[in-house]
Amino acid sequence: DSYPARLRAKDGTIRHVAITSNGRFEDGKLFHTRCFTIDVTLAQLMESQIRESERHMRNLLEALPAAVYTTDAQGRITFFNRAAVELSGRTPQLGDMWCVTWKIFNTDGSALPHDQCPMAVALKENRPIRGVEAIAERPDGTRVPFAPYPTPLHDADGNLVGAINMLVDITERNQAQNRQKTLIDELNHRVKNTLATVQSLAAQTARNAEDANDGYRRFEARLLALSRAHDLLTRRHWAHTPLGTLAHEVLMPIFGQEPSRIVVEGDPVDIGTRVALNLTMTLNELAINALKYGAMSVETGTLSVKWVVQPQSDGMLLTLDWREQGGPRVAQPKREGLGSRLMKRCIERDLGGTFDLTFDPKGVCCRISFLIQASSP
């Protein structure tokens, strides 16, 4: 037998040795013994370096944020990191075959047998697998889309000794792609709607303009209002917009900051893009008329824009009141103008609400009501 030991050499260094001994017996009596001492310091050092290298490699694999596992040449699992446990939702057993996941599915939802999974193909065909995706189902039923990167491993002579696989969770990537597609579809829809709105504005303005210059000024003002609405929504990435922010964005460029004359307040509520665009056009029409003919055309005039939000069984009822006071005496127009028709179209047709414009002698009043699906910020 061989016994490990450590000896101190003449130069003071410690050497690792393996000691073997045997004895010779004659007539049942020990005749002599022989002892061999072999210096195995270099071999011990190499073994220690190999163990340290393996430990370092395992630590690196454990630290990776992606699921990583290895198998032998037959497909039996020999190692897996913590990320593999998290992705699969289970703790695999060493010796499990092919994959750490509970169940595997193709991207079309059909079942994928473990012996046909990318890792199995990589081992059976002795080649790396790239550019494929699959879905892992955890024991609790949740599913995770992932991209596998199985790669065969070879010894110094080129013989297949196993494989390593990395499973990358692509949930966020798929969600980002879906958001991008939704955004492109929404953009196409909005461009078509915007072009239709511009076309309608141009046609109606031309029919009701007194002359070419008047038609141009009216059309330009409405285009600028539409542009401001798009600017506001773009800054918020076409997400829900606070109604208070939108009202100030529309009115202040027209009237300026005059707190003593203008009150804009209401319940905190976010509105969607369709509501925001139609409200912008409506508020812009009311504001332009107030500045040219109504209360804001004189220094004594005041404007109040207030709204409330009330819960309903099928959504939230938003009611906005526009009230002008202190301006020139108001008279009922002889016929309905383009602005009134445009506002009705925005509120009644596009938003399915009610639009009530009153030409009170003391000042123009307007009540707008419609349902929204929104939540308070």
Structure description:
This protein is of the alpha+beta class and 377 residues long. It contains eight helices and 17 strands. The strands form four sheets. Strands 4, 5, 6, 7, 8, 9 and 10 form a seven-stranded antiparallel sheet that branches.
Rg from Cα: 40 Å
Coarse structural class: alpha+beta
Count of DSSP H/I helices: 8
Main beta sheet, described? 7 strands, antiparallel
On the 0 to 100 scale, the average pLDDT is 84
Overall geometry: rod-shaped
Distance between the termini: 80 Å
Give the uncertain stretches in residue-range form: none
String of helices and strands? EEEHEEHEHEEEEHHEHEEHEEHEE
Helix share, percent? 25-40%
Per DSSP E runs of 2 or more residues, the count of β-strands stands at 17
Q: What portion of residues belong to β-strands? A: 25-35%
Features:
single chain, 377 residues, alpha+beta, 7-stranded antiparallel β-sheet
